[in-house]
Every structure is written in structure tokens, then in C-alpha cells.
Amino acid sequence: MAVLTPMIFPFPVAVAAALFAAAALVPRHASALTRHDFPEGFVFGAGTSAYQVEGAVEEDGRKPSIWDTFTHQGYSYNKSTADVSADQYHHYKDDVKLMHEMGLDAYRFSIAWPRLIPDGRGEINPKGLEYYNNLIDELIRHGIQPHVTIYHLDLPQSLQDEYNGLLSPRFIDDYTAYAEACFESFGDRVKHWVTVNEPNIETIGGFDNGRLPPQRCSHPFGENCTRGDSTTEPYVAAHHLLLAHASAVRLYRDKYQATQRGQIGITLLGWWHEPATNSSQDAAAATRMNDFHIGWPSLHRFMHPLVYGDYPTVMRSRAGARLPNLTAEQSKKLRGAFDFIGFNHYLVVRARADDSAFNLKQRDYYADASAIADPFEDIQAGGLEYAPWALGKLLDHLKLKYGNPPILIHENGTDRTRGDTSCGLSSTFSSSSSATVRVSVCVAST
Question: Signal peptide: which range, if any (predicted)?
């Protein structure tokens, strides 16, 4: 399947979001959408992550990540693994050629920590270094900007085994050292860095409901829980990811940015929440979820500290002692620790009030928000809702709360069934900020 999700977005920074599962499998009719459909200054790009497309999981010194463990234990959909996947490790030249033929301006990919530094810390793997140098050089040779994600949920399994990964503050130093290896090795050519992709999703999926690796959770909040604590661990993991991000940004700005002249940010996932019914209770629940999701577990949990240096008041009041404290020095490092915010948005989620949850002695993130808002339930019930207006509301929300930060749309859109040719600029709307946003979705399925 190839998914193309272009956008025209006149906020401070405009970047196209285009996704495809495997560059080698772009169907012929996807060529109906080209770079010429977009104006000058618009960046038409495509994005992947290392584990999804590289394959070669046991080749040339790469060691397992928590995703390898997760899929090999049979927890992924259809019990599939990414052992081969699109095999970009061996076919990157073919993939870059296809990107060039599609007219892409940028390719967003992630570096696999267990391929570059297989043990999580220590020596760089020469074969891993060679692969990423070759990929970056091939992109530049074809006039394609490399946009690099340093960490995309594929923690080396060795660090998970050693100290429980994100639950330990030791992660911060190991991540910072890994990030520096990336800056030193590739920063002369890479001008767009993302420290972490969707940390909000990793912390909820990995430590609250257990749907993602390292699959830690506790009853009754998670699924198939054998270890973990859904009431505290999502907050701790997010806290350490946030501090790791700030540490890498400080390092880059102090040591590399002046000479390498790049930009660095973080990519967050944001769902817009609407009330499930017309009741005032559900309306309040949707508001709380937008404050929680856009702030704490998703955007607010990360955006608020990055702009204001502390967690949102609503998070403090509801999570209490389960929410880690920030020292004065940590707060200083966090405030303004981004040149841009990468933003992923796919769907609107319907929120229902659940005030009884707040009275429970043990509460997870959703109970803290006193709301039921599970996007996976919505997807299973009726598929993704095509709602470009939700993106506009979400961007207005960010602008209002956080002073119009530079935004790069990294991922966006929903798919279509085989034979659906509804491509092109399909929706135009004006947001309350008086900015006109035109959203286009075009998907070709094989």
C-alpha cells in the first residue's frame, strides 16, 4: 500500500506529509499526484521509520530492539515481524530513485539505534554507519532533503533488559550519547533533526495499555499485563523522554548548530477530541482530553513543558504525586527546547465522560482525565473518520495555547479502498485564526 497525504499549510513552517509503507511497492496509479500539484516553497515529502522498512534485522552487526522482541513473541497484528519488510537496507538506491521519480523534496526516516550502536552505548557499528551515510548521500544526490528522526520507538533490547529502558533516568545519558553520535556522523549533511517520534504514543501504548513494546501495564487498565504499573509508569517514561529530548537539544545547540546550521525539534501525535454526544458532560470530557492529550500524554504533556517549563496545571491537580517534579535546572533546559514541532494527525476521537473514574483509588491516564476516548475502539467500530476540519481545530488550539510555534506536518491522512480515485484538493476551510488550510488525501491501494 502506498499512502500519499499532501497538505498546503500556511502556518509558520510548511512541510508536506506523505506516507508510504514501502517505497518499492508504489502502485502505478499513485503517479496521478506529483510535486507539480503544490506551490513553490511547499515541501513535498515522505516518511518511514527504520523498523518498518529496513529489514535485515540480524545483518551486519544489528542487534534486537524492543520491537523485535515484541513481534517475535507474537504480539503484532497477524503475528507479523519486520525481519524483511520493504528491505530498504538492501534496496535503498531503488527506493530513492522512486522518490525522485515521484518528485519528493524530502524524505523523513529514522536511524535504528540498535543498528548504529547495537549495545545501546559504546562503539559505533561501522556497517550501520556506512548504511546511513550511503542513504543520506543517495538522497542528496537526487536533490532530496534528509529529515532524520533519531529515536522512533526502537530502543535497544539490551537497555530495556539492563535498567527497564525509559523507566530509568540512565536512559537520558545513553540517549544523549547516541544523539551525539548521530550529530557527529551525519550533521554535516542533515539539516532537520527530530529527537523523538511520538513520545506520547510510546508512553501510553508501552506503559499504560500495553499495546506496544515494552508491553508494560497493570490490571484493569492494560491488556495481557504481566508486569508494570499503568498508574505511574506512563508519567515516568514520558518524563525521561522529555528530559532526554531537552538534553539532546542543549547539546546540539551548544556544540553543533552553529557550524552545521541545522534545526532540531520533536514530533508529537495529536488527536482532536469531540464530544460523543450533545451532553454537557461529554463536552467537558472532550475539553479535558484535548488538554490532556494535546498537553500531557500527547501534545500538552510535552508541549506545555517545552513552552512554559512545567507540566500543565490540570495534570498536576489530577495526577498529583504520580507526576514527576521538574527541578529549576530541568525547567530551564526544557523551556524553548525546539526549533520546530513536528506534528502527526490522523483522526478525530469521540470522548465520553467518565466522572466515576476519578474517584478510583488507582487511576491511569484516561481515568485522570475522567474520560473514555479510545481511538482504537473508534477505528474498529467504523474506520478512520475523514475529518480535515479536526486538524484545523487542533492547530488553532496549539496556536492559542503556545504562541504559534513553528509546525511541520510530518504525518497526516486516512486511506481509501482499492479503486478510489478521490485525489486532489478535497477540502478547504478557514480556521478561527483566519488561516486557510487546504487538505488533500490521495491513497492508492495494492
Answer: 1-16
